[in-house]
Design brief:
- InterPro entries: NAD(P)-bd_dom_sf, SDR_fam, SDR_member_12.
- The chain has a single domain, classed as NAD(P)-binding Rossmann-like Domain (Rossmann fold), CATH 3.40.50.720.
- By secondary structure, the chain is an alpha/beta fold.
- Helix 3 packs parallel to helix 4.
- Helix 6 links the parallel strand 4 and strand 5.
């Protein structure tokens, strides 16, 4: 990553990604955008037991939505569910246990969900993982890639038929501003070449999520796709994965509720779907997926290559 790109990103972060930046941006928010009832609509949220996912689930449950919490840890998920039900009075909150890094199980979960439920209006791909060192799953795939990219691809692709037959279907993926420092690279998806830098690998995965969203929006035009950056948020994941950053910035980090605001807006507001599908958002507005002069644009051929590689990998682990 170039020094320019790094410096430009940090400067942008300090001015746009902090708690104060959110408070400033929120002055232009249209409050009535979120004054809606979503009773009768169902929302699947991955990584819903903590941080941004939990805040999203809480906010949508308050508006009457049926919540499907997809979580890795049963105890934490049940605890979060109990809190959400207690605080919102909404009992339509369901826990599903799935580790997105277990590729075959992602397929199995999505297929069984489609058999059990007749509708899914909104899928929120929120779960993610930053690995401190390279590790592989049972299928031999790098765990970060399996969770952040292939798991998101399989879950989304598998649920598309269910989404398509539901009213006003939407798919929202929680990316990260870190992707701005990365150009799409398809030649080292398993991060098995060169030194493993977990933060940069994660940023590359987040770039791949942006490209994936753009491409899926082109092929599935009756679903509204979006991808967003929540800002710099004080979550357990950030504290664990980036302790130095967390320590130095902790007084400037957003709350999980502030980080979740744009996710909720994209999931429930009418205003969000008036924008084109496949776009990248920050604080309820469409923003560029590239820093100025950062040389992070990729060719349509490279973007298509990513989708082909994901499709091939997904099929390899699809249960027959």
């Amino acid at each position: 990553m170039s020094l320019y790109r790094n410096s430009a990103w940090f400067l942008k972060g300090v001015t746009e990604f902090t708690r104060n930046a959110y408070l400033s941006a929120s002055k232009r928010f249209v409050e009535k955008d979120l004054e809606v009832s979503v009773a009768g609509r169902s929302f699947m949220i991955t990584g819903a037991n903590s941080g941004i996912g939990r805040a999203t689930a809480m906010a949508i449950a308050k508006k009457g939505g049926t919540i499907h919490m997809v979580c890795r840890n049963k105890d934490k998920a049940e605890e979060a569910r109990a809190d959400i039900v207690k605080e919102t009075g909404n009992k339509e909150v369901y826990v599903h246990i799935l580790d997105l890094s277990e590729t075959k199980k992602v397929w199995e979960f999505a297929e069984s969900f489609k058999r059990k439920y007749k509708a899914l209006n909104v899928l929120i791909n929120n779960a993610g993982s930053i690995m401190s060192q390279r590790d592989v799953n049972a299928e031999g795939l790098e765990k970060g890639f399996a969770t952040n990219v292939l798991g998101v691809y399989i879950l989304t692709k598998s649920l598309i038929p269910l989404l398509e037959k539901s009213a006003d279907p939407r798919v929202i993926t929680v990316s990260s501003g870190g992707m701005l420092v990365q150009k799409l690279r398809t030649g080292n998806l398993q991060s098995d070449r060169g030194r493993y830098d977990g933060t940069m690998v994660y940023a590359q995965h987040k770039r791949q999520q942006v490209v994936m969203t753009e491409q899926l929006a082109k092929t599935h035009t009756n679903i509204h796709f979006s991808v967003m950056h929540p800002g710099w948020v004080d979550t357990p994941a950030v504290a664990n994965a980036m302790p130095d950053f967390h320590q130095s910035m902790k007084d400037s980090l957003r709350t999980p509720e502030q980080g979740a605001d744009t996710v909720v807006w994209l999931a429930v507001s009418e205003a969000a779907t008036k924008n084109p599908s496949g776009r990248f958002y920050q604080d309820r507005k469409m923003v560029s997926t590239h820093l100025p002069l950062a040389w992070t644009h990729s060719s349509p051929l490279e973007e298509q290559k990513l989708m082909s590689l994901l499709e091939d990998l997904a099929k390899t682990f699809q249960p027959h």
